[in-house]
Each structure stands twice: as structure tokens, then as C-alpha cells.
Amino acid sequence: MEHREEKLIAIPFGESKIDALFYHSTAGGGEGMEPVVIHVHGFLGNFLDGSQRFLPPILARHGYSSLAINTRMANFGLFFGYGLIDDTLPQIDASIRYLQSMGYAKIILSGYSLGGCIVLKYASARAEEYESLSLLGFVVLACPYSMPASIRRRWNRWGSQPSYDEVYEEARGILRGEPENSAEDRTIIIFKARGESYRPEHTEIYTYKTWWHLAGPEADSAKGHMNIQDIKQPILLIQGSYDDVVDSHETYELAQIAKEAGNDDVSVFYVNAGHRLEEKKEELGDIVVKWLDKRL
Amino acid sequence: MNFSARDGFNLNALILSPDIEEKVLETPIVLQIHGVLGNFLARGTPRLIPPAMLKCGISTLSINTRMAFMGQIMGEGIFDDAVYDVEAAMGYLEECGYRNIFILGYSLGANLAAYCMSRVSGTNVRGLILEGCSFSLPDSQRNRYDKWQSIPSYNDIYYNARKVLGPDPYGSKSDQIVIVYRAWGASFKPLDAELFTYKTWWFMRSPEAHHTKTYKLIDKIASPILFLQGEEDYIVGEWEPRVLARIAMKGGNGDVTVKYIPGARHDCMENPEVMVKTVVDWVSSRADTAPNQALKK
What does pTM read for this prediction? Predict the structure, then answer.
């Protein structure tokens, strides 16, 4: 018994569209309970991959429908110059409007890794609009305290080639103070960014422009710790206890900042898993379901 | 939907079929294979042809092979292995009981479909549609790199690939991502760049990538073949499908057609009316049940 119907949809977005996979829960008689959960993918991800693929079916079993979206940062957006965090915000607006047009009035926004950064940025940027956006809470999975700091630390740890500081200097030279409109942008490869070898899995790819907006020292949109303090709705943070991409204390510190800023409903869980959380899919799903059940 | 290839690779796929469950297995079905960095939602043919076929009573199964998305960039997109993905999809359709199976390969997917069909004998596939099919992927890339004076050059990549991969490229544990500037145009901008790993390049674009030299294997295909090409294609030359067709016929294939689609470039769905009519007519005349008849039953 699958308890769900999956439907590929294209959400209108200006002259373009947002590809998404809608999971309509049929548990308990067919009408999915509210809230509905929007899932935002991680680094180079898409809705066919990772937690945005395995979590919706688990939620559907418990009556919650999901919408997993591909933003501009999906797949190789970072490689070809158009994957910028700030450009994903209107896409999330459009996704929310789409769900509202379907009749949903309670929406949760969930993001994994880079998607967590996007969720925190969105929640901060739209902090005055939660009611009109029907937003009731946020789920943040394996999200770094600050994407730029996390990337710098990781590159320094493995002795990346080129180094973080070298890329910063090159980016400044190429972008010439105009990261939004540079006509000189180009794709770059960073070896030994995720491990000690030159193999593809230890390599990262950006353009100077996408790097600047995601990993550069001035990439404020990617600094979760700056954005989380603006959020006054319930937040659920989950991380793998042996995550080798995001240090385990980062989730704890994000939660502390939210609490100190006055949010009295911040929950933190660690599961016995790595960065992708795939070792504990069901446990992760149970945590999210219980959090939804109790609060919403 | 998902299913696995023989080596365990998990494929995502999208099936679109008419809402006539009891007759659906008689309906012609087109197995669709995407192009470079593509997927079943990529713009153009991969995204547009399934709903267009469905309106005409033809089902489609669109697959994401291991070459989809970033396969060629992150290392898992080995062309020679991707044939397992096509075989798995064919096996799935046969197991389901479909009796009128066709394959449509777009761009890189056309070269992959041709390689796959050159390996099989006694297949149930009733026809092969090759859209924007290059005569030879290695030659095509070498010419393009020479034209734009790529950095590094084709020969430099070949030299470096041999050095990195060693004497056994397939079994090599050593691999690296390589970026080629000025691969698609005169600038250093991201959209003119191309990314591979040395290993994926070796099996897709190098002088040793024998299975992507379609002219060497097209004469082994016995099934009917329809070559489709946009009249304004700027990636594949006008002569390429014509010469491939001649080689196929010389090999003994008596059912080979070449059709140029007016008003279209590399993606023939830039002229959907002509493209869809061409495919529907060709499929209908080679299936043992025409699309509309299946629906009427």
C-alpha cells in the first residue's frame, strides 16, 4: 500500500516554469492532511534525489502531502552561472502560490543542506509575510551554520587547489565589483575540496559568480546564522551525527542563535547518519511526522 | 518509476500511456533517450514529445540513463555502461508485455540507441528513430574544438587522459574532472565551456571511443531506422544522417528513411507539427496495431 499519488507538475513562473513532483497523500481516505510540505534540494540536487525523494513517501504514509521542487540551483545551475540563492526566493513564492491555489492553507518549508540555507534565507526575507504565505514552520536538514565558512573550512582542511583565498582574489578580479552583472564570468574547478584526492567526488565546480553568491565571504544569503535569528515560527533542525560535510556543532549553534533571538519553539535532533541522512530514512521521517503532529 | 540496470544502476523513468488499461499493451510505445546533460524533463524533444505522442495515442517511456544530469561530469556517465540502462528499459517493456516497442534517441541518446541496437539480434524493437544523430561523437567534438580553438585542445585532452587513466582506462581508479573552455563558442563564458571527467570523455569523445563512432556500427542494425534532423541544425552536419543512412542500407537494412524537419535546429520539436506527424506516421506504418486503432478498440 503506497498511500500516495505522485504527479509531475510544471509550476508557471514568468515565461518559464518550475519542475516539481507532487506527492498527494491518500492515507486515511484520500484527503491529505494539512500542512503540506515543500522540499528544497541540496547542492547539485533535484527532486529525484536524496531526502526530497525519500522523505515525501514517508510523510505521505502518515497523511502529509509534499511538493518537491527543482530550483534554479538544481543539477548544474552552479556550473553555468545561473544558480544564485536570491533567485530561488521568487520560485518558492510561486510554489507556495501554487499550493494555495490548490486549497492548502497550512504550509511547511523544508530544505536539505544547501536547501536548508535557502529555506533560512527565504524565512528571513519573508518574515513579515508568513500569514499571507500560509507558512507555519520550517524544517532544516544538515544545514551549515554558514555556507561560506563551511566551505572555507573544508577547503582549508583538504588543501584545496586553488585555495579559498586564491578563488576569492580571482573572483574579485574577474567580477570587478559587479557580481550581479559580470560579463566575464567563467566556470572553475576546485580539486581536493571534499577530500584528499583529485577524483571527481572530491572536486567542486562553480562559476566565479555562483561561487561569490554561495561561498564567497560576502555571500550573506548563504549564512544561516544571520538568517535564522529573524524566524519566529517553529523550526526543526536535524543532522547526522557523523556528517563529514557539516560539523555536528553547526546545527546546535544555529538552534542557539534562534533561541537567543526569541524563538521559543526550536527543536534539534541528531540521527546516526552521515550528511545525506540516508542511513536513517525512517527515523528521520518519524521525527518530522511527530513534529508535524504535535505542533500543527 | 524506477528500475535497475544489470550492474545495479538505478534508473528513474517516466511512462505516459493512454487511459485504456486493457488495450495499452497493444498501443505502440516509444522508449525515449535524452541527450547530453539531459533528462526526461529537459527542454525540447525529451520534454515535449511524450505529451505530443500521447495525444496521438502513442505511449512513451522516457528514461534517465547514467549519462543524465551530471553523469559525464561526475564520472558515472560511462557511455559503454549506459547501454545497460537502455537494455533494462527494453527488458522492462517486454516483461510488461508491450508488443510494439520503438526507440527514439535524441542527440547523444541517438548514438546510444544505435550502439544498443547494433548489439542485439532478434529484438522485439520494431523501429529506431535517431534524432540529431552524429556520424561520430569523437570526430564531431574534435572538429568543434578545432573550430573554436578550445583550451585545452582535443589533442591535449587526449594526452592528459592517457596519463591520468593509464593503460586500463575502464578499470582505472584514477580520474579527474576536466573543463574545456571555448568548446562551444569563442568566449570563456560558462555556456561556451564543457565539462567531463577524463574517463567519461574517453568512452564518449576520445579517439578510442569506438562505440560512439556510429558510422562503424550502423550497418549492424536490422530494424527499420528513421533519421530525423532539423534543416537548420548547427551541431550535426546536414550530410551526417544521409551518409549514415547509406551505410545502413549497404549493410542490408532495407527500411531506412531520412527526414529533414524544416524550421528546426538540433531539436526537431522546434517544429512540433511536422516532427510529431513524421514520427506518428512512421511508427503507425511499422506497428502491427496503429495508434488510433488501439484506442478505438
Answer: 0.92
